[in-house]
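batch_manifest entry 22 of 60
target: Transcriptional regulatory protein YycF
source organism: Roseovarius albus
requested by: lab member K.T.
priority: normal
notes from requester: please return tokens only, no post-processing; we will run our own comparison against the previous entry in this batch. if the run fails, retry once and flag.
--- input ---
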Amino acid sequence: MVCQVFIGEKVPERTAIRRVLVVDDSRLQRRILAASLKKFGYDISEAGTGAEALELCKAMSPDLIISDWIMPGMNGLEFCREFRRLPREAYGYFILLTSKSDKSDIASGLDAGADDFLTKPVNSDELRARIAAGDRILRMERELNEKNRLIQSTLEELQSVYDALDKDLQEARHLQQSLVSERYRDLGPAEVSLILRSSGHVGGDLVGTYPINGQRIGLYGIDVSGHGISSALMTARLAGYLSPSHEQNIAMRKTDTGLFVPRPPSETISDLNQLILNELETEHYFTLLLADVDLSSGHVVFAQAGHPCPALQKANGQVEMKGSGGLPVGLIDGANYEDTEFTMSAGDRLMIHSDGVTECADPEGRILDDGGLSKILRSLHQTKGVSCLESLIWRMSEYAGDQKFSDDVSAILLEFKTG
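--- output ---
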């Protein structure tokens, strides 16, 4: 077997091939190949058998192997198979030296894991070209590995950031839920129940109550545009404007005598609209329903600002929607709002809800709407308080075919007692 010596420059600094293992049972052929490769600056190791070469591969992890096919004991094909089974951080390029030219032999070599072939006697120019091709492949493989390592490192950092953010959002969710401090209150002549379910960690819905005097109570439902952190912060700000403290509540005014009295809901919403437009630098707008309820007489005065019409369910189970809509708060300067009045009787109940209820969609995209809500309320006529609201959520889940809603869901249920 003859291997011709070739002349060339030193190995470029960016080459991926540094360590080369020459495997041949002929010492002469190994020395000829090794001498040729050393002129290019490669770090050369030699092995006379496949078994010896395999041990060297375990110890020094060569970048390139040039192995004879025909060897006693473990031949080049068997050695290649065993080499591919070794655990490695980087790919090793494998060239088989052979006098075989049959296509089935070449296929066998490729199946065993060989990357390329050189026909003996080896031509120096061809050897150099085959090594250059292998080097390009290894450089691409190592560049890809480096990019993958960078991606993995970035993903780990992002996961760490996400975990910290998720923890903060979980805490923010608890804080937002705490704004609905009481899910149920017995008011004497009536009972009020509240529910708040955000579609994400935090949301833009909020429901609440505040005392007006010993016989009157204020109710509100808010739905801020969006569902994220900024929406949740906006709901917290709005909750402050409708605080149980009369001094801070925009829906109350102080008389000359120092007493606090309620303002008409429409007037309160109108002023709130101007406040949002003139003083708060925000792109958010929100819908609002604000109600003033006289518990002694059952008289209700409310105003809507784009919020869904509340559902009044009479003692006999029949449901009717009240109000006419109105413009959301924070959209149009000088928007006007109207008060709507009606009187509730013993056994009647009023539901104030966000559009996450009526716009709940089934798998075909058909929304629940007022008609669907009325049907659910009639079926839950005998179910009271928080249980009624929880049952409403369950019915909505059945309708949507999913327990996770695409929008926030909130509601207040005011129920006058029967006696």
